[in-house]
Amino acid sequence: MSPLGLAILAIVALSVMGLPIGVAMITGSVIYLAMSGQDMSLAAEQVLNGLNGSYVLLAVPLFIVSAGLMNAGTMTDRLLRFCNLLVGRFRGGLGHVNVVQSVIFAGMSGSAIADAAGSGKLVIDMMRRGGAYPASYAAAITAATAVIGPIIPPSIPMVLYALISDASIGYLFLGGVVPGLLMALAQMGINAWMARRHGFPIAERVPLREVPRLTWDALPALLMPVILLGGIYGGVMTPTEAAAVAAAYALAVAALLYRSLPAREAYRTILDSARATASIGMLIAGALALNYVVASENVPATVRGILAGYDLEPWQFLLAVNLILLVLGCLLEGSTILLVIVPVLIPTAQALGIDMVHFGVVVVVNIMIGLVTPPYGLLLFIVAKLADCPLGAVVRDALPFIAAMIAALGLITFVPELVLWLPRLLGYQG
């Protein structure tokens, strides 16, 4: 067996045995270097150079911290009450609240898992109160709406895509705005249909006199995406600096303004964020080492040559990419797909003249849909546990939302202007 074959076999075997995928990729890379007669310290060199030389990666832990601080304080509670004020009056209103709060929260955290684990528990409890909604439906729509988080900026997956593609983070963030809103509209459409079909209740109207108070309470939280995106696109700060501002702002609002962040809770939040960052960091380290192996074997050029033999049109290639990523999303963790599989596809996309911002948004949307597709579907496991209901029931109720998201993905894929209109409006030349 070739060194590359042994490395892949080792990675698969170690992952099946339960070893973290990042460690498995590093081990497989070391095996490749040993079998091919290269210096095994090259693996460490690639990891250190990749992690220390990438300024954009600093945004990842900072966005994780900001999401944790928002969940630890009362920012999420206030946002939910404000969302209920906006859309709670319609039939299936709490389902619409679920979607709208995810859109707003998306402008703060950049993480689907943070959205589901943070605001998810609160909104599920709201929907289940008094038996208004089945637990499985509340969990399913919560998983589906959490997908919006990393599509609307800021976005941790887009930061990682920028790392491997050299695409502009700022324009990637802009490119995700319209697709994210399109996904939200698709989910609200499904919720409205389900509400009429099952006779979900209309929430009690918020008294008019409460409107100023609820709006004022939520205003500091609502200002965060305005500050972040205004700072980035106004040229005041880079996306990485914006992540630091997000963390500092969340801490200031939760601890000083709302006074809802005890020292013990702040410590626990920082600790949890450090653990999450270490987990992602190990995965990135493994991907950096493995990408050296892939580059050494000239795999991207080989894949490009194979696909060139089929004389694919750009739309055919994008369709194939969607199918591949949707299938892989059922089986693999999203960051693994992004850091290991996508770099192999990028050279072919570039050779076909596909815009890298458009391609990046399509990739990220695919990976996010993978978070709610069985059997892996990490978000499904999280919300099923939060709602304390069987996973099978959650999957059943999530299927209409998954279908709507795939339809939205088709539009995003084959109508590039949905992605590129806003970046071009603000100066993108691609």
Along the chain, the helix and strand elements come as HHHHHHHHHHHHHHHHHHHHH
Structural domains: how many: 1
Helix content: over 70%
- Shape field: globular
The helix tally amounts to 21
First-residue to last-residue Cα separation = 43 Å
Quickly give the structural class. Answer: mainly alpha
Low-confidence stretches: none
Name the beta content range: under 5%
Keywords:
mainly alpha; 77% helix; globular
Structure description:
There is one protein chain. The chain has 21 helices and no strands. It has about 425 residues and is mainly alpha-helical. Helix 8 (about 135-145) packs antiparallel against helix 19. The protein has helices at about 5-15, 20-35, 40-50, 60-70, 75-85, 95-105, 110-130, 135-145, 155-165, 170-175, 175-200, 210-235, 240-255, 265-295, 300-310, 315-330, 335-350, 355-370, 380-385, 390-415, 415-425. It has one domain (about 40-425). The mean pLDDT is about 85.
